[in-house]
Amino acid sequence: MTRITRPLILLTPLLAFLALAYVLPFAGVIGWSVTIPEPGVQNYEAALTDPLILSVFWRTLRICAIVTVVSVIMGYILSLLWVRGTPLVRTLTELCILIPFWISVLTRAFGWLALLSHRGLVNGWLEALGVIDDPLRLVRNEFGVVVGMVHFMIPFAVFPLASAMRTVDERVLMAARGMGASRTRVFWQVFVPMTAAGLMGAALLVFVFAIGFFITPAILGGGRSVMIAELIYLRIFQSPDWGLAAAVSVILMVAISALLALLLKQLSPKGVR
């Protein structure tokens, strides 16, 4: 058995599973997009010209971009504490990162609804302290969706960032300090560039994951901040307009694939400086 055939044999079950679970269903979705209700590309024309669908696309991209930036920044701070903090700080940070994985996304969304709703705990506390006279509108809008999604996505941003931080050579940091650079300058001009691959990986993971969010926007958005996954669901199960929903799905898949290809090119050894 050669060195080439052995990996191929080991990869065959995985490739077969991916073909059955992803490639064949996606081929069916492509088929629906050009055959329902009649053969043609009218569904793609509608998806790319309908103001409602375009507004949902832009809202999804805007929310995902905000969630990505906030999640990566907060994940970077948590990763710093996790990797470079004292033993006690590392333990507490690790608990903060891992505990959210024990709670389902549905429970977390309803938890935020209880906190941020019109008569929720946050508005109750602010009114009791005399900070506000009328309840703030913190859910059933984009703010509530962003809060819920950021809370879910931060742990996913932490792992690639922490992995990148653990590979930083301490001798480089010490050399920079030895040459007279301040701690702030060492952080921004040495440490952050050395973790650039982790930043790109975390941003990629969070953004792609966020695009497919359904439960959190549906609960915290209350139908007023519909994202693309919820739109596809509504077109399939409520309109129903399977052909248009399939066309939107294909466009979304192509856009994500193009984004992945672009970012992976940046993450290649030549792309990371």
- The proportion of strand residues reads under 5%
Helical stretch tally:
13
Oligomer: single chain
Average of pLDDT: 87
Radius of gyration: 23 Å
The residue ranges in which pLDDT falls below 50 over 5 or more consecutive positions are: none
Name the helicity range.
over 70%
- Secondary-structure class: mainly alpha
Q: What order do the SSEs take from the amino end to the carboxyl end, as H and E?
A: HHHHHHHHHHHHH
Count of extended strands: 0
* CA-CA gap between termini: 39 Å
| Outline | globular
Taking the sheet with the most strands, its summary is: none
How does this model look, in words?
The chain has helices spanning 5-35, 42-49, 51-84, 87-98, 105-116, 121-128, 142-166, 170-178, 183-194, 196-211, 215-221, 228-237, 242-267. By secondary structure, it is mainly alpha-helical. The mean pLDDT is 87.
List keywords for this structure.
about 270 residues; mainly alpha; 13 helices; globular
Fold topology:
Elements (H helix, E strand, L loop, with lengths): L4 H31 L6 H8 L1 H34 L2 H12 L6 H12 L4 H8 L13 H25 L3 H9 L4 H12 L1 H16 L3 H7 L6 H10 L4 H26 L6
Short description:
This protein has 273 residues and is an all-alpha fold.
